[in-house]
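User: I'm curious what two different proteins look like when written out as structure tokens. Can you demonstrate?

Assistant: Sure. I'll show them one after the other, since each token string lines up with its own sequence. Here's the first protein:
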Amino acid sequence: MEIGLLQCDHVRDSFQHILSDYDVAFKGLFQKYAPNLTLRVYDVCHGELPESVSECDGYLITGSGHSVYDDIDWIHNLAEFVRQAHAQEHKMVGICFGHQMIAHALGGRVAKANSGWGIGVKTVDINQGKDWMQPTADTYQLLLSHQDQVLNLPDGGEKLAGNEHCPVSMFIVKNHMLGIQAHPEFTPDYAKALMNSREERIGHEAIQQATITLDSVTDEGLVSEWINAFFTTSDA
């Protein structure tokens, strides 16, 4: 199954020895946990998008250092592509920025959260399960790096998971759009480097607290299996 990876940012040069780039990270993740999915990369942040929604079997939108409400041409174009995919009920998954973009493009509200930055490893509670969420779980733990959050879901959106810090951590729209706030493709070393580079914005104490969590066991395998099942199950 061919999935179009809509890449919305690149790893900065100084961090490429830790994580070479986001497309490489997702390819490695899926090779390990969802080898039936192959990725076709589109450099969205440099203006590249599929010519039509039908070009791939499904799409995954990556994270980004930008906000979905930034007034930038490629962000506006991506939002329109999301709306086209939604109108055609084409499968799409959003990670972090991508999660927020699905909500934003379809009429939900995304803004900086009063709860502050989400960094380190956090536990997310499953509020509503779906048949494709196999194996089942009551919670999952993943790495995070975000300041914005989905504050209001779009029409047809259903919350699947959340926690006190980020109430809408995972949601679905009409069985073909899935948003996940956390980063299954991140490594602890990369998450640490990223938050340390943002110390002036995040705050030293918050980073210290988040750094303690980086040794926690994370569930990137479980969430990758869910993403795989979401893409491959016709009635997901």
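Here's a second, unrelated protein for contrast:
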Amino acid sequence: MTPEALIHEVVVVPRSAFAPLADIQVIRRPGWMQIITPTFKGGGLNEVCCAVLDAADADAIIDRTIAEYRALGLVFRWTVGPDSRPHDLGARLEARGLVRHEVLGMCRETRGAALTGEVEVERVTMDRVDEFTAVMTTGWGMDPAPFHAYHRAALGDPERRHRLFLARDDSGRAVGAAGTVLFEKSAYLIGAVVLPEHRKRGVYRALTDARLADAAALGRALATTHARAATSAPLLERRGFQRVCRFASYGSG
């Protein structure tokens, strides 16, 4: 890919990595993409994904958007990617109390994943989806209630873009969870988490390698992801991922 095409695949394409939940609202117009999901009060599926604003109008739009989420009682985030404008958008969000997190847009080829077999990883079907939800929400410290419907919607999506994975320890207990969203040219790796008492035992590595191998088998040569610079990015670099770009996410809670 050209550098421009790679940036598009890493930054723009994953903005559509959501399942068709009944109450999700997706607002798209030139220079703007926003997601509002009233059932997700505590975080997730509430985001300004793209904002290209005129500097003179930015403050009014920021205030209106923040007020909209707060009126609904929603935790939300505002992603400021390489294509966001104005250039001081992040500073304007911080001035309103949103908390900045550094994010790396990363990618690697899917081939060559070194599957060790030390940790069992299975692909989740509908009969195991509640177990997946329990592990994922426990690991992230989130309310499981809205995710039960969401993960069922993901697996039931007629386009079959969403693939969910569970990792198990030697006793068969599920100790880690992760997902992939398939796009035409790439596989977007998302949401990997390991239960705290099972970290540093190769579970995260196994979930990553299993998803790479799965994507390669499905004909996706490129894997992309968005990783927190201070946490998951160093782990992914050790699995062969390279930084494509750096941007920021500003959270309300």
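A detail about the second structure: The CA atoms of residues 40 and 146 lie 6 Å apart.
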